[in-house]
Design goal:
With 227 residues, this protein is mostly helical. The chain contains 9 helices and 2 strands, in the order H-H-H-E-E-H-H-H-H-H-H. It folds into 2 domains: 79 residues, Arc Repressor Mutant, subunit A (Orthogonal Bundle); 137 residues, Four Helix Bundle (Hemerythrin (Met), subunit A) (Up-down Bundle). The radius of gyration is 18 Å and the shape is elongated. The model has no long low-confidence stretch (mean pLDDT 83).
């Protein structure tokens, strides 16, 4: 099962493939800028400046900007440019509540469906978590790595519809996390449930895995609720 997230397109590996059109390249580079959270909260992306920065004509940049607008990641402000679309407080909390319900089921299924391939995948991710925990020095890194852990567990559930729905919610909340970065939010210090969740799934301990999953999602909800 290969889960598709629009934010995978912003990863460096995705930008190195052959046969990438100029529009796709522009889309990926703009999305990468959005995810970095370097923009001021009231700043706009300028079509001409982006084209000059990317070393391409305005046409593919314009098409990429329109695509991002259709996905509600950006909105066009006449005579000003393109601004990141804010996700409402209510929509964010609602998405987290739905995600909590779905991920309690996905982690249960992941505990049940521990094939040799799944166990090997968990072992690799646990080893990776051991290396990067100390390096998660920003809320962006913390959210990005957490998303990868949650996506992996959704994939290991072996329920394609459930997994893709969770990824869609993660996409929505990744956009909300951009606003946390813009607001200068910090990640919770000393809290690393990701590795513990993976180890609980590795053991097949459904109760502990679900408890840790609940705590991990509620941490993000608490950060957002602080306003």
């Amino acid at each position: 099962m290969t889960l598709k997230s629009i934010f995978d397109l912003a990863e460096p590996e995705a930008q190195q493939g052959e046969g990438i059109t100029r529009k796709e390249e522009a889309y990926r580079r703009i999305l990468e800028l959005v995810l970095k959270g370097d923009q001021e909260s009231d700043a706009c992306f300028n079509e001409q400046k982006l084209a000059e920065s990317f070393g391409m004509s305005r046409a593919p940049v314009r098409e990429a900007l329109h695509m991002l607008c259709s996905e509600r990641i950006l909105t066009n402000i006449p005579r000003l440019g393109y601004k990141i679309v804010p996700i409402s407080f209510r929509e964010t909390l609602d998405a987290l509540d739905v995600r909590l319900i779905l991920e309690m089921e996905s982690v249960r299924l992941a505990c049940q469906n521990r094939t040799p391939d799944a166990l090997a995948q968990l072992d690799r991710l646990i080893a990776q978590e051991q290396r990067i925990n100390s390096e998660e020095d920003s809320i962006h890194a913390w959210i990005m790595q957490g998303d990868f852990v949650h996506t992996t567990i959704a994939e290991l559930s072996q329920n394609m519809v459930l997994a893709q729905t969770i990824v869609s919610l993660i996409d929505l909340l990744r956009r909300a996390s951009i606003q946390l970065i813009l607001l200068g939010k910090n990640k919770p210090l000393g809290i690393h449930y990701h590795r513990d969740i993976l180890e609980a799934v590795r053991r097949g301990d459904c109760g502990e895995a679900q408890d840790l999953m609940r705590k991990d999602i509620l941490i993000l909800k608490e950060i957002i609720s602080r306003g």
